[in-house]
Design a protein that fits this description.
It comes from Streptomyces maoxianensis. With about 180 residues, this protein is of the alpha+beta class. It is built from six helices and nine strands; from the N terminus they run E-H-E-H-H-E-E-H-E-H-E-H-E-E-E. It has one domain: YbaK protein (Alpha-Beta Complex), CATH 3.90.960.10. The strands form two sheets. Strands 5-3-4-6-9 form a five-stranded mixed sheet. A four-stranded antiparallel sheet has the order 1-2-8-7, with no helix packed on it.
Length: about 180
């Protein structure tokens, strides 16, 4: 199969690649439902040693620099408690943690979660966190530009491999709230 974006030697529907996905991502793909068929989630094998955005784009296709997204875990603090959420923005932008995220979570303070918290709570590898398979009770804040992108390259839950997903699929993920201006 040929990937809809990028130049990848190995592209397969994600339901055919459950063995290479982390357990939470594989479980989410198994249970997938919605307007986008699970077969439209495409797993592509990538070299984890060339994960840097510029080098990745040179190797797999420069158009990926405009269609890649990042998923980051944030911690919102209010009173004595901390709540976790995830944010998805195009890679060409950064998450507005202290503005949009803090307000959306109703937090006094918001910051990126530590690596140990992000990996421990998601069951995914740092640098490969994806919104597919996150804890269902987490808010998932998605920049509207991601939803408006035809095909989006996102982590697969591991450093090796990525998922190519129709942008509109992000709006249907558990806990998803589509927000204009999340990525600045």
């Amino acid at each position: 199969m040929r990937a809809p974006i990028g130049n990848f030697d190995d592209a397969r529907p994600a339901p055919h690649c459950l063995d290479v996905l982390t357990p939470p991502v594989a479980d989410a793909v198994r249970a997938w439902h919605g307007d986008v068929a699970a077969e439209q989630l495409i797993y592509v094998d990538t070299d984890p040693d060339i994960a840097d955005t510029a080098v990745f784009g040179e190797h797999y296709g420069r158009e990926l620099l405009e269609t890649s997204a990042n998923c980051v875990v944030v911690a919102g603090k209010r009173g004595g408690g901390t709540s976790l959420a995830a944010c998805v923005v195009l890679s060409s932008t950064r998450v507005d943690v202290n503005g949009v995220v803090r307000k959306q979570l109703g937090a006094r303070k918001a910051s990126f979660a530590s690596m140990d918290t992000a990996t421990g709570e998601t069951g995914m590898e740092y640098g490969g966190i994806t919104p597919i398979g996150l804890p269902a009770d987490w808010p998932l804040l998605v920049d509207s530009a991601v939803v408006d992108t035809e095909w989006v390259l996102i982590g697969s839950g591991r450093r090796r491999g990525k998922l190519i997903v129709p942008g509109k699929a992000f709006a249907g993920l558990p806990g998803a709230v589509v927000i204009e201006g999340l990525g600045i």
